[in-house]
Design a protein that fits this description.
mainly beta; Jelly Rolls; 3 domains; 2 helices; 2% helix; elongated
């Protein structure tokens, strides 16, 4: 049909935003909220950068004409959905619909009796109640249309009217309550915990984490003969995992020297601390990840990482911490998020197995002529609450072993950034919880065993206790 324009007024968006529209598919719902069903109006009208400036209060969606047929072909008797979405914060948007009723008569191509009704469909916060009373003039005798009442809960907010004659004047009523930003752990994938926020309100956040890391090792399997070491790390990302920062104060190492056969030894170390990140404008891109050694088939090594969101502040307004506010990962336990003050139920997912002749406790079974060293007081098992799943015995064939690995880059001779995970096959037996060099720019951390079928790789050199030692071996 064409020649129909849609005017959007009373826009209240302080930041840059995009404008989308689509025709209702008959469901009277705007779903899907995202995707290719929405048409970017800014791009359609050949705007070089289809972004509308923050503070814009009125936009006219021009319909197609003879001279410009590529514009939207708005039709009578059709419902359209309009979406305004913030450019930098795409999870903040407002959606409303507009119904263009059929005209009764035409003279010279000019519609005489247009009618528009608007009912908002939004998913945003805070809550605002509005009442609008549209009216129209038909021919020479004014005839008001029935009063339409609409309820909206938008942030940002807008009103929609047709340039064919109908208009709306929204009248906010009441004072909205204070918007409190709520920060919490929103999801846990593998051993990576991601933060979430309710009502971010375009604020800038400072977030403090309290952490507790543990590293434990023993040489029970070798009856005190071999040295052993276990290291636990905590990493934080503020850009959705594109890069990671090691929380240096949280890194802890336990070690035993060996050479005490037949008396075994054990060691356990832990550290408490806090770590603060500032200037956060997108809380949902903040992630934490614990990493630790975990081996039970020979000399034992294990670790755990606990993180609590201990404080949150914002540049303006109020922020609070809600559940879940705690993160926990540990060797042989299932990773979990929970509320501090409510201890999570332990969910040990596998039972460590040793050769029947070996002891799993720090005081080994020895011959009657041997007296254990009295200073051996630590147990190599991890008693902290929930944790991670691990199969302690690697899947083997005559020539290959299967493993899951975490891949890290090397920045010259020091550990770089976390690159991802993979499943590999190796012709050599590798120690779970150890680091190995893959090439001169990459090292592998053996996080567990796996079924055969992964990528076949050749591991270079011996095992190392941490990422930096493995990277430094390339010199």
């Amino acid at each position: 049909m064409g020649y129909i324009n849609i005017k959007i007024t009373d826009i209240q968006i302080p930041n840059e935003f995009l404008v989308y529209y689509k025709e209702d598919d008959g469901s009277s719902k705007p779903y899907p909220i995202n995707g290719n069903s929405w048409i970017d109006y800014g791009a359609l009208v050949s705007v070089s950068t289809p972004i509308f400036t923050g503070g814009t209060t009125t936009i006219m969606l021009s319909g197609s004409t003879i001279t410009n047929p590529d514009l939207p072909d708005f039709q009578y008797g059709t419902t359209y959905w309009i979406k305004l979405q913030e450019y930098q914060y795409p999870d903040r948007y407002v959606i409303k619909n507009i119904r263009i009723f059929d005209s009764i008569a035409y003279e010279g191509g000019v519609p005489l009796t247009p009618s528009v009704s608007v009912s908002p469909q939004v998913s945003a916060t805070p809550s605002i109640t509005r009442t609008a009373t549209p009216s129209k003039t038909i021919m020479a005798t004014p005839t008001p249309t029935p009063t339409t009442s609409r309820m909206a809960t938008p942030t940002p907010s807008l009103s929609i009217s047709s340039s064919l004659g109908a208009s709306q004047t929204p009248s906010p009523s009441g004072t909205p309550p204070e918007i409190i930003s709520q920060v919490y752990f929103a999801s846990l994938v593998g051993e990576t915990g991601t933060l979430g926020v309710n009502n971010s309100a375009a604020r800038t956040f400072s977030i403090t984490f309290s952490y507790h890391t543990i590293a434990t090792c023993d040489n029970v399997w070798s009856n005190g003969r071999d040295p052993n070491q276990a290291t636990t790390y905590l990493f934080v990302s503020i850009n959705n995992g594109s890069s990671w920062t090691e929380v240096v104060g949280a890194t802890i190492t336990a070690s035993v020297n060996g050479g005490t056969y037949p008396v075994s030894d054990s060691d356990s170390q832990d550290v408490y601390g806090t770590y603060t990140i500032n200037g956060i404008t997108n809380v949902t891109q903040v992630k934490v990840m614990g990493q630790y050694d975990c081996a039970w088939t020979q000399d034992g090594k294990s670790g755990s990482v606990d993180v609590i969101i201990s404080s949150v502040s914002v540049n303006t307004g109020t922020a609070a911490i809600i559940c879940n506010d705690s993160y926990h990962v540990a060797c042989l336990d299932t990773p979990v998020l929970y509320c501090s003050g409510v201890s999570p139920t332990p969910t040990r997912s596998s039972t460590p197995s040793r050769t029947p002749t070996k002891s799993i406790i720090p005081t080994p079974t020895i011959t009657p002529t041997t007296t254990p060293t009295p200073t051996v007081t630590k147990t190599p098992s991890v008693t902290s609450t929930p944790g991670r799943s691990l199969t302690p015995t690697p899947t083997t064939s005559a020539t290959a072993f299967g493993y899951t690995v975490n891949i890290w880059s090397c920045n010259d001779v020091i550990c770089g950034v976390y690159l991802g995970s993979a499943t590999i096959e190796s012709a050599d037996y590798l120690n779970v919880g150890s680091w190995y060099k893959y090439n001169n720019s990459t090292v592998y951390y053996i996080s567990g065993t796996a079924a055969l079928g992964g990528s076949l790789v050749d591991i270079l050199g011996p095992a190392y206790g941490n990422c930096t030692d493995a990277c430094g071996s390339f010199v």
